[in-house]
Amino acid sequence: MNNIPQNCIKIILTAKDTPHRLSECQTIPLSDKKPDYDSVIEFDTAKTFQLIEGFGGAFTEAGAYALSKISPDLRQKALQSYFDDIAGIGYTLCRTHINSCDFSLNNYSYDDTPDDFHLENFSIDHDKQLLIPFIKDAMQISKTGFKLFASPWSPPAWMKTNSQMNNGGKLKPQCRDVWALYFVKYIKAYMQAGIPIWAITVQNEPDAVQRWDSCIYSNTEERDFLKFYLGPALAEQGLSHVKIIVWDHNKDILVDRIATILSDPAAAKFVWGIGFHWYAGTFFENLAKVHSFFPEKNLIATEGCHENGVKPNSWQTGETYGHAIIGDLNNWAVGWVDWNMVLDETGKSAWGWPQNAMVVIDKNTKTVKYTDEFFLYKH
Questions:
Q1: How many beta carbons lie within 10 A of that of residue 323, not counting itself?
Q2: Would you say residue 38 has pLDDT above 60?
Q3: Is 221 a catalytic residue?
Q4: Catalytic residue among 53, 61, 222, 303
């Protein structure tokens, strides 16, 4: 890839029903004169669009656990396939979870002591078992490095109106201060562990009641938690460099949600970007609307995956990714992040909800499988 002749571009081919997976083909010349070809790609270097932050996937406890079931050599190869800048995809933008998520091994938080409003018992020791080694090994492989953002699926149960991490519920009003402090503690603890947090999202999927970790915020509740608690807490603790991403949910109701938050200048000043998922449909037009209303804010695809189990030989899953990524980029997205980087052959979490991953670890045969989706995403 680095040996392209000057003023040429190289053609790389990945094609259905062929052995071609990132196959290097011929080079074609670049010219400032329009050639007499049937098909021509024109580059207008005078026109620019959004700055791309990167592409990547999510570090989850389920992925870390799957990787722990294979040999160190195979584990290294699997990580290199994502993070090696030359032989792999070269991920530059990744996600992880604050507390447990739907792809953790069980519910857990960093402070399960009821009414510990000063967070005296806060500890990320749980993450040091599987999740942090997963992230740090990836950091060792990546030469250019990657940006990491973190999302909560739920506060600890004692901060919730339903007294559990699962099945929705809301953040108790009297716990808004301590939950904002919790973000601060998390960022600083990860920093001490050698992992800088580039950004946080306020809440994963704040409009979805799930049987796993979840927490509900209305439009105004998310705005006010950001404006009065989370934003000021980061600023007061010297963490203003950590970017804040709002929404982190589907695109179908994106416009109204974002209008509520960003129409308030006191809340908007804390917002770097708007996160979105793809599960309700493509809704590219909603990205364009939000960009037209708030062009100074960044749009970023924070999660997407295929559900209902692993699909090792499905070309269609890769085509769906390509359609979504290109459509999102054409409508001002600055990055795109896949969900679980790795799962086992069942694709299941602790909650029995099977999903697909680009790299699949077969616990029975102790092998690593790369799906068609992996090659199309790498392409």
A1: 13
A2: yes
A3: no
A4: 303
